[in-house]
């Protein structure tokens, strides 16, 4: 097995939370993608790091916008995750936002209204590495649901649930 194959096999054994990262591009169109490469960076100041493909619409748009949102998905959002991952034929671009309870935040970025949590972030830094960008987001707002929820996770190429 070569290194790339081993890397893929190894990463399939890492369970990750599922998020949809969204922004409003400079042209006013909403864009977003499903992401599992999301992590807290620090508490002081509150910051997140997000990995996105530089060739995605969001990856292209993020350099020209001040803010983005990270929407944590529950199990009821499986279709939203599939749509924003590009796995549903015929649903592209802004049509993705027809799936889910999307609304604008005060900062003008789309947030999923019934998400377990949403983080609004100011673009603090963008680090370019190979095929991806690492977005450093300074968290400017957090919305959390008071509802009990089952979180959506991605493991071994499929979606699963974790109960809270």
From TrEMBL:
A molecular function GO annotation: FMN binding
Keyword Coiled coil tagged: no
A Pfam cross-reference name: Flavin_Reduct
Gene3D superfamilies on file: Electron Transport, Fmn-binding Protein, Chain A (2.30.110.10)
Residues annotated as domain Flavin reductase like: 11-161
Highest taxon in the source lineage: Bacteria
InterPro entries hit by this protein: Flavin_Rdtase-like_dom (IPR002563), NADH-dep_flavin_reductase (IPR050268), Split_barrel_FMN-bd (IPR012349)
Keyword list, A-Z: Oxidoreductase
PANTHER family: FLAVIN REDUCTASE, FMN REDUCTASE (NADH) RUTF
Protein name: Flavin reductase family protein
Species in which this protein is naturally found: Streptomyces phyllanthi
